[in-house]
Amino acid sequence: MRDLLLCLFIFGSLPFILKRPTLGALMWVWISVMSPHSQSWDYAASLPFAYIVAVVTLFSMLLSHEPKNLPMTPVSCALIAFVLWMNLTTPFALLPEASMEQWLKVMKIMLMTFVVMMLIRSKQDVLRLLWVIVFSLGFYGVKGGIFTIRSGGSDRVWGPDMTFIADNNACALAMVMTIPLMYYLQQNSENKWLRRALTVMMVLSALSALASYSRGGLLAIAAMGGFMWIKSGKKLVLGGLFTVCAPLLLVFMPSQWDARMDSIGAYDTDVSVQGRFNAWGMAYNLAKDRFMGGGFEVADLSVFSRYAPNPLDVHAAHSIYFEALGEHGFVGLGLYLLLGVQTWRAANWIIRNSRAREHLRWALGMATMIQASLIGFAVGGAFLSLLYYDVPYYLMAAIVATRALVEREVAADPVRRPPPRKALDIRLPAPDLP
To answer: Residues near 321 by Cβ (< 8 Å), separated by ≥ 6?
Structure first.
């Protein structure tokens, strides 16, 4: 039954996508982030929904008269440079076949990221994009939270199979990234029942992240929570909420969870951590030896035997930074970091120019919460191979669109500043001369 409903919904949306390509961009984000076909049991699990929606969206763009040029901002330019560099490193890959297969997957993600940047232009579209991301990941947050309550936290939470977040650590990071977006939508929703539903979703998503037993996820939660508290205008309220909720969530988790988290300090004897260190050492040695890195998919015995400190301990990079370094060299890592810096600066610009304008408070809150989400990704991603995870790129697209909207508002209605004070012109009366 669910296969039929999914097919009816997706195929039924195609005529609307032909009329308005923006709907196709949002549908693509929903399919790529949530992977709803992974929840089906029959024929829908193997249907190429993402490919069909992408083709129809691109065709609709050709027919549409709506503006669809790519905004040339520092963020989009940095992303273009990063994508071009990945295309330059691929022909020099150490493992050509595996690299080409991964290149095809990554380029599809990047192509549709640029499509999202081209089509998401209005405030309504930006908010719809956030709602799609929140719904897509919140579904698994609620599902995982309920599973955690039923199991008493004794069983780990995993993500949907054959997706970016199938691994328990990646699933935890996805939940952490979504919580600030949920908080933003909850604070800006007028319907009280919707606000309550988002509150429940945040609690269940946090519980789901903890029940993944991910140590990186715990660090990401701490970093993100600290940033949200610093940026909050209600520090006492938010601090009190954290003080009340955090102990309740932690007390709920069983003793084996405590033992897992306590192992963070024993990194020198942890096999998993030492495997990460070995993969990071391999990436660094590879980047030093090859200017363009090793290309996609270098986690192979033949590569580790040449560059790793322990040639027999083959691991994925387990870090977005060392993944970029090993696969695309120091230039690739620099471009990726530049992309993050430019996104952060764009969000800061939105915050700075929206603070004095009441009608742009939505942009101020959104940019701040996206920064919190990206803080979580930057910290948690340091321990995960999620360099090509699509959600951060969609958040970058939201920042690009929001900055363009704020720029137009600022140009149309600049904040009037009081004129500078003039020096007092005090003239003494001329003395009476005899």
So the answer is: 333, 336, 337, 381, 382
